[in-house]
Structures are given as structure tokens and as C-alpha cells.
Specification:
single chain; about 170 residues; alpha/beta; 5-stranded parallel beta sheet; 8 helices
Amino acid sequence: MGILLSLYSYIMKVFTMGYEGISIDNFFSILKSHNIELLVDVRELPLSRKPGFSKTALASATLSQGFKYIHLSKLGCPREIRHSYRVDQDWQLYTHRFSAYLDTQTEAVMRLEQLVIAQRCCLLCFEADASYCHRSIVAKRVQQYSTQPLAIQHLTKTLIEAAALSFA
């Protein structure tokens, strides 16, 4: 088991994180604790009512914290798919619709794959639960396209709280 864990630590990873329910300080703590180099914003519209998480403020804070920031809007979920999900609450249908949309965004997926291979990246969206966020679908698609073995690690609020405690 120890050997498998050691091998896992050497496999390239793409990280994902939702900022729902966390502060900007905890957000940056978890990025630091995982040695993230590049924050990849995969929201179609990088706006937020939560202070610090709209594109301009987030990009500035990210740079001041020593990270790079990029917004890849083509990997965001289109409005019509988001709005349909709000009405029907059908995650399976949402996943199908968003996957079909991603089929049209090969260039953006390949660009993200190159970024992930070059540096430690974390995909950002709002939802705390990655299993109900399009970023998990984006991460899986990058994993499928990758020329390198690639693991996906979803960072959760529990991990964020643990990281914040380790910095206290």
C-alpha cells in the first residue's frame, strides 16, 4: 500500500476546488499547501457575490499571493445548460449536455492539458461538491486527452479546514 501511495504522489495531478463556503484566506492556504502554481478559472462568467472571487479581484489577489491566474471561459458551462439544470435538477442530463458542449471545445481542453503538464494547476469554480460541478467533467476530459498519466484530486472544505489549521 505504501508503494502505491508513493507512486501516486509522483503522478501528475490536476486539482479542482470550489470556493463555496470558504474564505479567500482559506482558499489561498489550500493552494499553498498543495504547491499550486496556476489557478485556472473555469467559470463561464467569473463573477461572484462573494468578496474576492470575481475575476479582477481574484486575479490580482492570486498574483499578490505568488500564483498565476488564467480564465478559460470556453471551459465554463454555457448559460443555457446552467439554466436548464436549475429548472429540471437532472444531473445526468446536465452532464450529457455539458459533455456534448465540451466536444466542441477540443482546442480549449488541449490548452488546459498543456498547462496541467507544465505546472501544478487547480481548476476553480463555485460548487463545494465537485461531483455536482462541471469542473469535474472538465478534469476528466483533460485526463482523457492527456499524453501523460494524470490523476484528479478534488480539494474539499475538509481539506481546506485541515490546511488552515496547519498554518495556525
